[in-house]
Structures are given as structure tokens and as C-alpha cells.
Design goal:
- The protein contains 6 helices and no strands.
- With 158 residues, the chain is an all-alpha fold.
């Protein structure tokens, strides 16, 4: 099943409510989608949960493994596609296990959107600059580290 960016936005909007109540929590998704710019939580990083840290670490590790070949321009279209699939799997895991408060969730929407957009470019679905998609994912990972509490976080480097 192909999961679209819309799925991720809706799922993130619903992840706080959980269970049957999620289907009826219509307002949360709209409020979160209205957030336009990443910001700190009253000057501090947003709290994360174990599932989010696990998913983001998985994406970061996948990028770290790929970066040497990406920088050498030896990363094939098939490898970009596989990396995009891996990123989307981690995003799905984070969404399915989301337990963030409303403010952190709203900020996470922006990070997830950038990760998803980058993965789409890497997969060849949008545009032809797969390398640019990898750059977008790295930028989202950098933003995650700047705005979310994740002990020991270091963005992947090639």
C-alpha cells in the first residue's frame, strides 16, 4: 500500500487521541497543520518519547550508512529508492506509536513533512534530483536535533 504525505499529516494529527476517540478529534489535526515554522517550547527543546527517538535514530543511521556513497555520487537509483522506503517505514513507526503532547506533535508535523518530501524525491516520485532529496532529509534531521530533546543526537555525516 502506498502511503502519501496526506496520510502522514492526518495520522500525526490523530496520534495524540488514540483509539476510537482519534476519529472524532477533528480539531487537533487542523490546528497542527496551521503551524508554519519550527519553534522551541518556551525556549526549550520539545520532549520526545522512546518511539520517536527510535524512529529518528533509525532514519539517521540509514542516512549515515548511505552518505559515503551519496557523496561519491555512487548511490544508485535503486539504493535511493530503498533508502526512501526505509525512511517511510520509520516515519510510519513513529506515527503509529506517537505519544507526544499537542505542541510537540505540531512541531513534529513539520519535521515529518520534510522527511517525507525528501524521501519522495529520493524515490524518484517528485523531481529528478535524488541527491537533493537526501539533502532535504539531512536538513530535517538537523532541525529535529535543534528542536527536540534526544540525548546524544548527532546528525549523520558522510
Amino acid at each position: 500500500m502506498k502511503l502519501t504525505r496526506s496520510f502522514y499529516i492526518v495520522a500525526l494529527g490523530l496520534c495524540l487521541a488514540g483509539g476510537a476517540h482519534a476519529a472524532h478529534d477533528h480539531h487537533h489535526g487542523h490546528e497542527a497543520a496551521a503551524v508554519q515554522k519550527l519553534q522551541l517550547n518556551a525556549g526549550k527543546k520539545w520532549v520526545t518519547d522512546a518511539s520517536l527517538r527510535q524512529a529518528m535514530s533509525g532514519i539517521n543511521q540509514a542516512m549515515a550508512k548511505a552518505l559515503p556513497l551519496i557523496h561519491q555520487q555512487r548511490f544508485s537509483d535503486a539504493q535511493y529508492q530503498a533508502l526512501a522506503v526505509s525512511i517511510n517505514q520509520q516515519i510510519t513507526f513513529a506515527i503509529e506509536n506517537c505519544k507526544l503532547d499537542a505542541g510537540a506533535d505540531a512541531m513534529l508535523h513539520l519535521i515529518i513533512a520534510d522527511l517525507q518530501d525528501g524521501a519522495e524525491v529520493m524515490s524518484g516520485k517528485t523531481g529528478s534530483d535524488r541527491h537533493g532529496g537526501a539533502v532535504q532529509v539531512l536538513h530535517a534531521l538537523k532541525n529535529y536535533g535543534q528542536y527536540f530533546q534526544h540525548p546524544g543526537w548527532r546528525v549523520a555525516k558522510g
